[in-house]
Specification:
This protein is elongated. Helices cover about 40% and strands about 0% of the residues. It has 3 helices and no strands.
Length: about 90
Protein backbone atom coordinates (compact mmCIF):
# COMPACT_ATOMS: atom_id res chain seq x y z
CA UNK A 1 0.00 0.00 0.00
CA UNK A 2 1.48 3.36 -0.90
CA UNK A 3 1.99 5.80 1.95
CA UNK A 4 -0.63 8.59 1.64
CA UNK A 5 1.40 10.93 3.90
CA UNK A 6 3.76 13.37 2.25
CA UNK A 7 6.67 15.04 4.05
CA UNK A 8 4.83 18.38 3.97
CA UNK A 9 1.85 16.76 5.74
CA UNK A 10 3.91 16.30 8.92
CA UNK A 11 4.24 19.37 11.12
CA UNK A 12 6.52 19.21 14.16
CA UNK A 13 6.25 22.03 16.69
CA UNK A 14 7.42 22.40 20.27
CA UNK A 15 5.24 25.35 21.21
CA UNK A 16 3.42 23.40 23.91
CA UNK A 17 6.18 22.01 26.11
CA UNK A 18 4.98 24.36 28.87
CA UNK A 19 7.36 24.92 31.78
CA UNK A 20 9.37 21.75 31.25
CA UNK A 21 8.94 18.03 31.70
CA UNK A 22 5.84 17.12 33.71
CA UNK A 23 5.16 20.76 34.57
CA UNK A 24 1.78 22.16 33.75
CA UNK A 25 0.87 25.68 32.79
CA UNK A 26 -2.62 27.13 32.36
CA UNK A 27 -2.89 25.81 28.78
CA UNK A 28 -2.07 22.28 29.93
CA UNK A 29 -4.58 22.43 32.79
CA UNK A 30 -7.23 23.75 30.41
CA UNK A 31 -6.48 20.93 27.97
CA UNK A 32 -6.88 18.40 30.77
CA UNK A 33 -10.27 19.90 31.67
CA UNK A 34 -11.47 19.98 28.06
CA UNK A 35 -10.27 16.43 27.35
CA UNK A 36 -12.14 14.93 30.28
CA UNK A 37 -15.26 17.10 29.94
CA UNK A 38 -15.78 16.66 26.21
CA UNK A 39 -14.23 13.29 25.38
CA UNK A 40 -13.82 11.46 28.69
CA UNK A 41 -10.05 11.35 28.16
CA UNK A 42 -7.83 11.37 31.22
CA UNK A 43 -4.54 13.04 30.40
CA UNK A 44 -1.40 13.67 32.43
CA UNK A 45 0.80 16.78 32.33
CA UNK A 46 4.05 15.14 31.22
CA UNK A 47 3.04 14.25 27.67
CA UNK A 48 -0.61 13.76 26.76
CA UNK A 49 -2.10 16.98 28.13
CA UNK A 50 0.65 18.98 26.41
CA UNK A 51 -0.05 17.17 23.15
CA UNK A 52 -3.79 17.76 23.58
CA UNK A 53 -3.12 21.44 24.32
CA UNK A 54 -1.34 21.66 20.99
CA UNK A 55 -4.17 19.77 19.31
CA UNK A 56 -6.73 22.23 20.68
CA UNK A 57 -4.66 25.13 19.42
CA UNK A 58 -4.39 23.59 15.95
CA UNK A 59 -8.14 22.91 15.98
CA UNK A 60 -8.82 26.57 16.70
CA UNK A 61 -6.56 27.55 13.77
CA UNK A 62 -7.93 24.95 11.34
CA UNK A 63 -10.19 25.77 8.44
CA UNK A 64 -13.88 25.11 9.13
CA UNK A 65 -14.80 21.61 8.04
CA UNK A 66 -11.22 20.36 8.44
CA UNK A 67 -10.96 16.94 10.07
CA UNK A 68 -8.36 16.54 12.82
CA UNK A 69 -7.47 13.38 14.71
CA UNK A 70 -5.92 13.13 18.17
CA UNK A 71 -4.56 9.70 19.00
CA UNK A 72 -4.37 9.01 22.73
CA UNK A 73 -2.00 6.06 23.12
CA UNK A 74 -2.02 5.76 26.88
CA UNK A 75 -0.47 7.66 29.73
CA UNK A 76 -3.28 7.33 32.22
CA UNK A 77 -1.35 5.59 35.08
CA UNK A 78 1.13 8.44 35.64
CA UNK A 79 -1.74 10.79 36.49
CA UNK A 80 -1.68 9.47 40.06
CA UNK A 81 1.85 10.80 40.59
CA UNK A 82 0.52 14.33 40.09
CA UNK A 83 -2.38 14.10 42.54
CA UNK A 84 -1.18 16.80 44.92
CA UNK A 85 -0.23 19.32 42.22
CA UNK A 86 -3.35 18.75 40.16
CA UNK A 87 -5.68 18.85 43.16
CA UNK A 88 -4.22 22.22 44.09
CA UNK A 89 -4.37 23.53 40.51
CA UNK A 90 -7.94 22.41 39.88
CA UNK A 91 -9.24 23.69 43.20
CA UNK A 92 -8.36 27.29 42.25
Amino acid sequence: MPNPVEDEDVIVRDDWIANGYARANEAVLEAMKVAVATEGLITEPAYTAKAFSGFLNRAREADPGKTLLFIHTGGTPPIFAYERDLTEAFSR
